[in-house]
Amino acid sequence: MSERPVIAVVYDRGSASLLDIVDGLTPLGDPVLALWPGDHADEVEPLAEELARIVRLDAADHDVSARLLAAHAPDAIVTFSESLLSATAEIAARLGLPYHSPATVELLRDKYAQRRRLRERGADSVRSFAVRRPGDWAEAVTAVGLPAVLKPLCGEGSRSTHLIEDAEQGAALVTELLSGTGGENSLVLEEYLRGRDCGPFGDHISVESAVTGGRVSHWAVTGKFPLEPPFREVGHLRPAPLAEAERAAALDVVTAALHALDITTGITHTELKLTADGPRIIEVNGRLGGFQTQLASLAGDFDAVTLAGRVALGEDVSQVRADERRVVFARAVPAPPGGGTYVAVHGLRDALAVDGVRNVVVPHSPGARLPVGVQTGELAWVEGAVADHHAMRQAVERALSLLSFTVEGPDGERRIVTSEGVAPPVPAG
């Protein structure tokens, strides 16, 4: 009997939890959890040691990290963390394992380089300009025009992403973001893609794809709920409510983009805007998309982490498709952009009793600090499975009407937060 394959996972926070990763990969082989140094690694190490063999990587030296992993003779490598794509590619190259090449990861991580490559190879033509210092702003506006989207050159989760409609407002924001306290060292200004009218649904989707040996297959098209301003994701659903012609056009656009970026092995998550002129690329990401593990579990069709593991092992997954006979969803209650401290949830039992709701996930414990900023963040999310999109809207609206949260703001005032926003301070006593 041959030995089981060894699958190295370069691990930090990402689109799959530690338990989901181990559960999903164990049917395929033996996972080795390669923990990236930091607070999260320190936090999860005791649990990781109970679940699988672990390695503590060296953040400063990819050669050392590769040698540490080589001792476990991995047959495949994967990460579910956007911030670790580059490190994983470097380690994979040193170990001779199939993965995104370092050159491809540079295109996946650097949003300006990605736009430039897509234009050069005729896959998409969105105007963009790199803003590395405040003095670049005037030239960026001339090249791109307004309105436009300003976002980090390398980022995730809608961090520091803003719609710019006024040049002076944009100049001030660029100066703030690129200052020592702004948190960004480079930005990109992109043409604003105006979505078509999509009714009660979001005017954007994502296409979930797998590439093995250069062969592209698409295993799901994910619909979205309308964004919270400026560009905060609040939920995902499958199947996306698209006409067949628009769905086919979206798949063609993504296939062209993945080939343009020289992707040969790996899972990808491509976000698109649905415009009056057809689907357009927002960005291509080189890892499993957020909430894909939950949606796949709700649909009961296959394990998304297992699929990523099969791709890493070089298996043919071209026939894998999401089960679209029911509508599955994960709809979030966004955390307030002003941050604060999570205090309590209300109405949880009633929301769980709503027909079609399978679970309500509250990721915070009382006393947890909520991040400040416009990035995507959740107080909770409602998961469910129903017969159709109409039933989904009813279930979501009912569950959200029952849920509320107490959050103590940075000013010390306690407020009730719902899916509709933040209420005035709660009176003392």
Automatic annotation (TrEMBL):
Domain ATP-grasp residue range list: 115-313
Entries under PANTHER family matching the protein: ATP-GRASP ENZYME FSQD, FUMIPYRROLE BIOSYNTHESIS PROTEIN C
Top-rank taxon: Bacteria
Pfam family, one: ATP-grasp_4
Name under which the protein is recorded: ATP-grasp domain-containing protein
The entry's keywords: ATP-binding, Ligase, Nucleotide-binding
Species for this entry: Streptomyces pulveraceus
InterPro entries linked to this entry: ATP-dep_AA_Ligase (IPR052032), ATP-grasp (IPR011761)
Keyword set includes Lipid metabolism: no
Keyword Ligase (UniProt): yes
